[in-house]
């Protein structure tokens, strides 16, 4: 596990930051409450960036254009499962100051899928040119 963290620094930091952002209490900020679905957009962006960080690390470490089933697991399946687990942690382990939500999980998943698409077509091709 330590070797993975050392090799995939950006992904590791992204996972830790998403975890922290997901479990700390959020203060009520009145001006932000006027934006509809702001929370869902935040989930969407966080998990899209998480997926992109994984893409970046995979190709930065390996420096190959090849795409493997293991890459699919790392860039989509693991972040989606992580998002689901975070929603469960929010629901059952935060003493009510955060709440797990299926719609948040869907926003997480859509973010991961968009991150996958961007990573597959942009990050992967960036490294193909090197």
Class based on secondary structure composition and strand pairing? mainly alpha
Total domain count = 1
The ordered string of helix (H) and strand (E) elements is HHHHH
Percent of residues in helices comes to: over 70%
Q: What can you tell me about this protein's structure?
A:
- The chain is an all-alpha fold and 130 residues long.
- It has one domain.
- 75% of the residues lie in helices and 0% in strands.
- It is built from five helices and no strands.
- It has helices spanning 2-7, 9-23, 38-62, 69-93, 102-128.
- Helix 2 packs antiparallel against helix 3 (38-62), helix 3 (38-62) runs parallel beside helix 5 and helix 4 (69-93) runs antiparallel to helix 5 (102-128).
- The radius of gyration is 16 Å and the shape is elongated.
- 26% of the residues are buried.
- The model has no long low-confidence stretch (mean pLDDT 86).
Write the SSE topology:
Elements: H1 2-7, H2 9-23, H3 38-62, H4 69-93, H5 102-128
Helix pairs in contact: 2-3, 3-4, 3-5, 4-5
Defining traits:
single chain; mainly alpha; 130 residues
């Amino acid at each position: 596990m330590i070797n993975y963290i050392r090799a995939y620094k950006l992904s590791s930091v992204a996972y830790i930051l998403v975890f922290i952002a997901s479990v700390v209490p959020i203060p009520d900020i009145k001006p932000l409450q006027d934006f509809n679905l702001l929370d869902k957009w935040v989930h969407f962006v966080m998990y899209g960036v998480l997926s992109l960080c994984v893409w970046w690390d995979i190709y930065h470490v390996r420096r190959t254009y090849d795409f493997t089933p293991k890459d699919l697991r790392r860039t989509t399946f693991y972040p989606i499962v992580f998002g689901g687990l975070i929603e469960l942690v929010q629901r059952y382990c935060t003493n009510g100051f955060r709440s797990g939500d299926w719609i948040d999980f869907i926003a997480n998943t859509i973010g991961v899928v968009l991150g996958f698409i961007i990573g597959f077509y942009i990050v992967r091709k960036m490294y193909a040119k090197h």
